[in-house]
Amino acid sequence: MFSLKTRLILTAVALVGVGSIIALEFTDWHQLEAVTLNDQPVEDWEKSLGLKPGESVLKQPLAEVAARLLKDTGTVKVDIDYSLPGTLKITTNRFTPVCLVVDAVSGRQFGLNQQARVVPLAPGYDDWEHPVLTGAEANKLFAHCSDDRVSLLIPQLGRLAEDNIGLYRLIDEIDFSKEGQVTVTVSGLPYRLTANADRFHEQITGFVQFVEKYQPDITGAENFDLRFANMIVQQGEDD
C-alpha cells in the first residue's frame, strides 16, 4: 500500500466557508463542539483525533488530523469541512466515479475516479450513464487497475464526455480482455469497435465523423478496427 509520505501528497484537505471568517471571529459559534467522521458522530475526538475542545474551528490542527487519519493504510484522501455552529465534518476516501468497472476476477462492480483509482459506489449511487469497463482486474479499493491501459483510457473518456456527451452515454461497454486493444460496444449498433486505449477519443470520434459524412454500406458488419492510420478495417461474417 502507499507510504505515509505518498498518501500525504495525495491528500486533499479542503476547508469550506473561509468567507465567514471575519464574522466568526466576533462570535462564539466557531468554537469546536462536535465532530463527524464519514457522517458518523465522533465521541472521543479530543483523544482519537487530537482536536482541541473550546478552541476555534479555524485554529484546530487540521493538517495533523489528516496525517493521523492517513496512518490507516486504507485511507488515501481526507476532506475536512465545517458548518455552524462549531461542527467539523471529516470525510475519508470521497472520490467521484467518472466511469464504472466490473472486476474481472470477482465480478463486482466499482467506480473509477479521474485518476483511474478503484472507488466504492455509495449505497444511493444512481448515476449509471457511464461506460462500463470489463476484462480488467479492479479488486483493490483506492488502488489503480492492474492494466495500464485503464489509466490511459480514463482521460480519453473525460475528453469524449466534454466534447460529445450524447456519444459518451451511448457507450455501453469497453472490454479490455484482448491485449493491445479495447473493444467497444455502443448502444443501438449491431457491430463493435476496436480501438487503442491511448487514442480512444480520436479514433471513436473519427469513426463517427466518417459514418456521418460518407454514410457507407455497413450491412453485415460485425466489427470495425479503428487502430490503423487513415484506414478503417471492416470485419463481417465472411472474414
Characterization of this structure:
The protein is α/β, with parallel strands linked by helices and 239 residues long. The protein folds into 2 domains: 4-92, no CATH class; 99-236, Rossmann fold (3-Layer(aba) Sandwich), CATH 3.40.50. Helix content is 26%, strand content 26%. The chain is built from 7 helices and 13 strands. The protein has helices spanning 4-10, 21-24, 45-49, 62-70, 148-163, 165-170, 200-214; strands at residues 34-37, 40-41, 78-83, 87-92, 99-103, 109-112, 118-119, 132-136, 171-175, 182-186, 192-195, 221-228, 231-236. A 9-stranded mixed β-sheet has the order 7-6-5-8-9-10-11-12-13. Strand 10 and strand 11 (192-195) form a beta hairpin. Helix 5 (148-163) crosses helix 7 (200-214). It starts with a helix and ends with a strand. Mean pLDDT is 82; it is low at 4-29.
* Tally of helical runs: 7
Low-confidence stretches: 4-29
Number of domains: 2
* Largest sheet geometry: 9 strands, mixed
- Helical content band: 25-40%
- In order across it, which strands form the biggest sheet? 7-6-5-8-9-10-11-12-13
Molecular shape: elongated
SS-based class? alpha/beta
**Share of residues in strands:** 25-35%
CATH architecture of the largest domain: 3-Layer(aba) Sandwich
Succession of helices and strands: HHEEHHEEEEEEHHEEEHEE
Total beta strand runs: 13
List strands and helices in order, with pairings:
Blueprint: H1 4-10, H2 21-24, E1 34-37, E2 40-41, H3 45-49, H4 62-70, E3 78-83, E4 87-92, E5 99-103, E6 109-112, E7 118-119, E8 132-136, H5 148-163, H6 165-170, E9 171-175, E10 182-186, E11 192-195, H7 200-214, E12 221-228, E13 231-236
Helix pairs in contact: 5-7
